[in-house]
Amino acid sequence: MSIVTRRHAGRAILGGLTAASLVRDAHAQAWPSRPITLIVPFPPGGSSDVVARALGRSLGEALGQPVVVDNRSGATGNIGAQAVARARPDGHTLMLATSGPGATNRLLFRNLPFDPLRDFTPIALIAEVPLVIIAGPRLEARTLPDLVALARARPGVVDYGTPGAGAMGHLAAARLEFLTRIRMNHVPYRGSAPLNTDLLGGTLALGFDFVASYVDQIRSGTLRALAVTSAERLSALPDVPTAVEQGIADYVATSWFALLGPSGMPDGVTERLNAATNAFVANAEARTLLTGLGATPRGGTPEAMGARIAAELATWEPIIREASISLE
Predict the structure, then answer these.
(1) C-alpha 91, offset from chain centre
(2) Where among 228, 262, 280 does a domain terminate?
(3) 254 backbone dihedrals φ, ψ, rounded to 5°
(4) Which site among 21, 28, 113, 169 is 20 to 30 Å from 64 CA-CA?
(5) For the domain that residue 143 is a member of, what is the CATH number?
(6) Based on the domain organization, do 139 and 120 belong to the same domain?
(7) Residue 243 lies in a domain
(8) What is the pLDDT of residue 27?
(9) pLDDT digits (tens, 9 = 90+) for 52-83
(10) Is residue 153 included in any domain, yes or no?
């Protein structure tokens, strides 16, 4: 190919790239052209619903179109997530995701009808949601190392409760077992309320659950917190140490709220949504809401959110496999 021909070819390529960029920019400028549907894959009234409605109001104001929250619950979040995965990738259908339908359900369900890495466009991490390891009145252990020593001395004897099989509390306990090589006995409950009741009543000695349901009891001393599962201490429970502080390296187990869309969304639309979501996370009122739900506000880029999903899958795969946790 001659120098002249190569120059013409280069100009053609640049022209094509410029044209494609203009099309994407025009699409982003025209969007949104109608109301946006924000799917929550869980029932109304829960923390995901509360966050989605606050985020929806903020996005609506920033983007100039109403955001309609659509609760499509069922199958541990998979019904709503599948609807998003199959939606047109035009930026008018989004999901307020948690780490279950956004990542780990792929490891828990044998025949999941979507793949979080392939079928979603990551937009932004909103907040992390840590757990607390809670001791009831009759648990002998006073610290997390005490619990590990107790479980090691009595394999399979220590009972622990979670809000359900495959819930993040269950995964967090399995991670503790995986890292410390202990073995405990899982008692799944149907939600946090009955678990909390049995811990307070002394029927159950140990629980793994999200922080928000236990802050008042921990502050009053009716329940004891052995550790929080975040990388840093929580402002709501500043006196409760992390597991890492207590010598269990790499023990971090958190869920999250994130904004995702169908795979193939235009870059310009994703960027506008990311900017609007980060503005929501930075807002003082939104931060108060999130911390009140036991969450730690985060924010970040679409690339970081995509890396977070991949990292979740890599982290949890060997733990879920070893613990033989599966849902159908």
Answers:
(1) 21
(2) 228
(3) -135, 150
(4) 21
(5) 3.40.190.10
(6) no
(7) no
(8) 56
(9) 999 999 999 999 999 999 999 999 999 999 99
(10) yes
Work out the average pLDDT over 255-272.
Answer: 98
Position 14 in a domain? no
In whole angstroms, give the CA distance from residue 113 to residue 69.
23
DSSP H or E run through 40: strand 36-40
In a domain, 10, yes or no: no
- Tell me which DSSP letter residue 97 carries: E
Q: Is 160 within 8 Å of 170 (Cβ atoms)?
A: no
> Considering only 9-13, 188-192, 227-231, which range has the smallest mean pLDDT?
9-13
pTM score, whole prediction: 0.89
| C-alpha Rg value of the chain to the nearest Å | 22
H or E segment at 153? helix 144-153
* Bridge-based pairing state of the strands 254-262 and 120-135: antiparallel
Do residues 46 and 123 both lie within one domain? yes
- The mean pLDDT value for 236-240 works out to 95
Q: Are 109 and 136 contained in the same domain?
A: no
Would you give the DSSP letter of residue 77? G
**Domain span at 169:** 130-228
C-alpha 201/C-alpha 136 separation (Å) is 8
Domain co-membership, 123 together with 266:
yes
- Distance between first and last Cα of the chain: 59
